[in-house]
From TrEMBL:
Protein name: P-type Ca(2+) transporter
Catalytic activity, EC: 7.2.2.10
Keyword tags: ATP-binding, Calcium, Calcium transport, Ion transport, Magnesium, Membrane, Metal-binding, Nucleotide-binding, Translocase, Transmembrane, Transmembrane helix, Transport
Record domain Cation-transporting P-type ATPase N-terminal: where: 1-60
Native source organism of the sequence: Desulfonema limicola
Lineage of the species this protein comes from: Bacteria, Pseudomonadati, Thermodesulfobacteriota, Desulfobacteria, Desulfobacterales
Length: 890
């Protein structure tokens, strides 16, 4: 174990003042004004600007009133400002919450103690402990130990390079004595001294040109495709409607009479006015039909739900992760900390009393109860063969053992290493190799005070037993271990594993360790076995059941023995049938890809799982068309996390695993994974509601714009009025539906198929029926003479029509929000919906009273408002009838 004094608080401050902070200057992000300028370059805004120029010219020539141009300018500015402000705020919220939850900490020696220090707080001359999975916090030199580092983030080379102590001022990336910020420790353990921080590091100099890659998920691609299709329909429809308008003006209005048509054409002022009106009508259709906000809906919805997700311990790193989670149908999950509590406790140490005829073993529940002859050897074996560092002076009990993994911390606690009294240094470490999931053991070559050298080994029982030639008796003597003795010991271990214990073998060897320490030494003397208990999380069984009810096949991957894995899987509700398949890693290696695919539907557990097994499982599942989620926490898990459709990094895992993931599960809990899936499905449904609402407005607005002129109304809704409608359709509707709560019923539905269409038959039913019904109501309102008589003037009548159209669509939000008959179900769980709906009603009333000529409105009498509400609210019973008919024919 390493020990260094490190810097004092005053030295830290002095270093920061002299050499600067370790913060890298953030990349330039788009400011509000940059985003506003970009939005004014949007094709839709450009079309409106062209329309504004035309209307302004016509106003100068006396064909139109001046306020129409001003109204369009104000409406364009308002719509663009609101959309920009919403987009900017959502992005800022998303980024800020991500940064807060994604802070990285590193073990650093300060004032003689090892402390977790935030990377941004590291200073020059800090002494930092590097362990597998750590992201190196600054540029510096190795002063003790040896590590293999992946420098792909700087060099592009995936192969890890060795870093060892040595003096060299050359900061070249090939220097074997230097390590660099942003690179990843893959193997080994070392201590570095920080030499360069912040913007002066290699990474800092490159940061300005670096851009984070973001995968585009299937949902966003579907939304973009839908937006393009609807836009194309809008452009074609607008052209057709403009042509139809001119056909009516030239042919129908003149009865097909050639002389009348010639007279019409010769009156160029009148004809130009009609052409401009047709163009304005086309622009109105395009403004309403083109859903420019549709592709951004995911970002808006996620930003609105980010805090809720964080409260559920879910950090979304990539939008793709949360949008794809609604389609997840296979989850490969870790066991330790995810299904179990992850609070490992060494329950006993099993000694070998006699490995002769009829193997005899004894379990000792505490270290102090062990035979004295074994206590010192076990103490040295666990203290000197570990990645952990013991900080005896720490006041906080949880800070006395730092670094390493949960298993190693449990082993040290068993030998009372977390007690305040420090033991005297008993050995010098010559070489050390840390445990990883591929080699399944850790080993340390030490030199004792009497100068005797000894190799300490701990790890998987089957690996160590196979290399064992001796065992320690309870008297501290060593005896030969026969093949029969090995079998009997293995049988005892199987019994312990079947009871849910994780078993760690401990041994020593006089054989010199291999130079690379990659191979286990021969002639091991077995000291005994630590029995580790990791209790099942109380919420694991309900969470597994919830995932299974949601149509998600859950497979547990673990490095434990089959017996331990089976016991936990049964308790978690994963193993429920004799047909359920438990597969060992070595047995899986013997299967062909086709054989592996064939057993996937019955596969529930993979024991002694290796990182390469995870990658193979992901590929096999994806080849069968499944949408695959994978959890991971180690350095070697990153390929599987990257290749999975959704990578779930674990909060307690390595930084490289988190960076390879789409979603970080901050508490490692399978319940949080279930929550991520639940929110993913909720967000998917919210987007579908938004699409249903928006396309319903499209259908009705386009139909009215097309039919209106043929009924004698050239522009039933003006461009300015429709710009307000467009704002209701896009930004405000997105905000209204983005706060929909995750409902239990979402987790009882089947996962969405990869190729499933975004718009379902039920959505089409709502879009077409309600869109056409709104059109019918509007036509009846416009053409039925008794209705006109209800209003005190023609201007009030057209004002009421504008209000009717807005109110119809606002009431339709209630229809779209729920599929059930109870329109108020869970409505108070989405207060944003009520605020948006209420705000639209209020603004519409204000526009009516103060919009004047610009919005073509006049004040209405209270009774006239009652008429508008009465005509518009009928959309609700009509849709209830539609739902009832659909329910009958389901």
């Amino acid at each position: 174990m390493f020990h260094f004094q490190g810097l004092s608080p005053s030295e830290v401050e002095a270093s920061r003042n002299q050499h600067g902070s370790n913060q890298i200057s953030p990349q330039e992000v788009e400011t509000f004004w940059d985003k506003l300028k970009d939005n004014f370059k949007d094709p839709m805004i450009m079309i409106l600007v062209v329309a504004l120029i035309i209307v302004t010219i016509l106003a100068v020539l006396g064909f139109t009133a001046w306020y129409e141009g001003v109204g369009i300018a104000v409406a364009v500015a308002l719509a663009t400002l609101v959309a920009t402000a919403s987009e900017f705020k959502n992005e800022q919220t998303f980024q800020k919450l991500q940064e807060e939850a994604s802070k990285i900490f590193i073990n650093t020696f300060r004032q003689g103690n090892l402390k977790l220090i935030g990377i941004d707080d590291i200073v020059t001359r800090d002494i930092v402990l590097l362990q597998p999975g750590d992201k190196i916090p600054a540029d510096g030199k190795i002063i003790k130990g040896k590590v293999r580092v992946n420098q792909a983030s700087l060099t592009g080379e995936a192969e890890a390079v060795s870093k060892i102590p040595g003096e060299s001022d050359d900061m070249n990336l090939d220097n074997p004595h230097k390590v660099y910020r942003g690179t990843i420790v893959e193997d080994g353990e070392a201590v570095m001294e920080v030499q360069v921080v912040g913007d002066n590091t290699h990474l800092g100099k490159l940061a300005e040109g670096l851009q984070a890659d973001e995968r585009i998920g299937p949902l966003r691609m579907k939304l973009a495709k839908l937006a393009d299709d609807v836009a194309m329909f809008g452009y074609i429809g607008a052209s057709f409607i403009a042509a139809a308008f001119m056909f009516k003006a030239i042919w129908l209005d003149n009865g097909g009479d050639t002389a009348a048509m010639m007279a019409y054409v010769s009156n160029w002022q009148h004809m130009i006015y009609d052409i401009v009106t047709a163009l304005i009508l086309a622009v109105i259709i395009i403004v309403v039909a083109v859903p420019e906000g549709l592709p951004m809906m995911i970002a808006i919805v996620l930003a609105q739900n980010m805090r809720k997700l964080l409260k559920s311990n879910v950090l979304v790193r990539q939008l793709m992760g949360i949008e794809t989670s609604g389609s997840l149908n296979l989850l490969f999950t870790d066991k330790t900390g995810t299904i179990t509590k992850g609070r490992l406790e060494a329950a006993a140490f099993m000694t070998i009393a006699d490995a002769g005829g009829g193997c005899q073993t004894n379990d000792y529940q505490t270290f102090d109860s062990l035979p004295p002859s074994l206590m010192k050897l076990l103490d040295i074996s666990l203290r000197e063969n570990t990645s952990c560092v013991v900080n005896c002076e720490a006041e906080n009990e949880n800070e006395r053992i730092l670094g390493g993994n949960t298993t190693e911390r449990a082993l040290l606690k068993f030998v009372n290493a977390d007690m305040k009294t420090c033991v005297e240094e008993t050995a010098e470490t010559i070489s050390y190799v840390a445990f990883n999931s591929s080699r399944k053991f850790s080993a340390s070559r030490i030199r004792l005070k009497n100068m005797e050298e000894l190799t300490l080994i701990k790890g998987a029982p089957e690996k160590i037993i196979a290399k064992s030639a001796f065992y320690y008796t309870e008297n501290g003597d060593t005896e030969s271990l026969s093949e029969q003795g090995k079998k009997e010991i293995s049988a005892k271990i199987d019994i312990k594993a079947d009871s849910g214990f994780r078993v760690i073998a401990v041994g020593t060897s006089q054989s010199p360790a291999p130079e690379t320490m990659a191979d286990m030494p021969d002639n091991i003397a077995l000291l005994g076995f630590v029995l580790i208990r990791d209790e099942l999380r109380e919420e694991s069984r309900p969470a597994v059941e919830s995932l299974q009810n949601a149509g998600i096949h859950v497979v547990m991957l673990t490095g434990d023995r089959s017996g331990t894995a089976k016991a936990i899987a049964k308790d978690a509700g994963l193993l429920n049938s004799e047909n359920d398949y438990v597969l060992r890693s070595d047995d899986m290696a013997k299967l062909s890809d086709d054989e592996l695919k064939a057993i996937l539907p019955r596969l529930k557990v993979v024991s002694r799982c290796l990182p390469q097994d995870k990658t193979r499982l992901v590929k096999a599942a994806q080849d069968t068309g499944l949408v695959v989620g994978m959890t991971g926490d180690g350095v070697n898990d990153s390929p599987a996390l990257s290749n999975a459709d959704i990578g779930f990094g674990l909060g307690s895992g390595t930084e490289v695993a988190k960076e390879a993931s789409d979603i970080v599960v901050l508490d490692d809990n399978i319940l949080s994974i279930a929550n991520a899936v639940h929110y993913g499905r909720t967000i998917y449904r919210a987007i579908q509601k938004f699409i249903t609402f928006q396309l319903t407005v499209n259908v009705s607005a386009i139909a009215i714009a097309f039919i209106g002129p043929f009924l004698g109304f050239k522009l039933p809704l003006t461009m300015i009025q429709l710009l307000w409608v467009n704002l209701i359709m896009d930004t405000l509707a997105a905000l209204a539906f983005s706060g929909e709560p995750p409902l239990p019923k979402h987790m009882k539905e089947k996962p969405k198929d990869r190729e499933e269409k975004l718009i379902t038959s039920g959505m089409w039913s709502s879009i077409l029926y309600n869109g056409l019904f709104m059109t019918l109501i509007c036509i009846v309102f416009l053409k039925f003479e008794p209705i006109k008589g209800l209003f005190h003037s023609p201007e009030a009548f057209m004002t009421a029509f504008f209000g009717l159209f807005v109110f119809l669509n606002n009431f339709n939000k209630f229809n779209v929000r729920v599929e059930e008959f109870n329109l108020f179900a869970h409505i108070f769980e989405n207060k944003g919906f009520l605020k948006v709906v209420g705000m639209i009603f209020i603004i519409q009333v204000l526009i009516t009273y103060f919009g004047g000529q610009m919005f073509r409105t006049v004040p209405l009498l209270p009774v006239e408002w009652l008429y508008i509400v009465a005509f518009s609210i009928v959309i609700i019973p009509f849709d209830l009838a539609r739902k009832y008919i659909c329910w009958i024919f389901e």
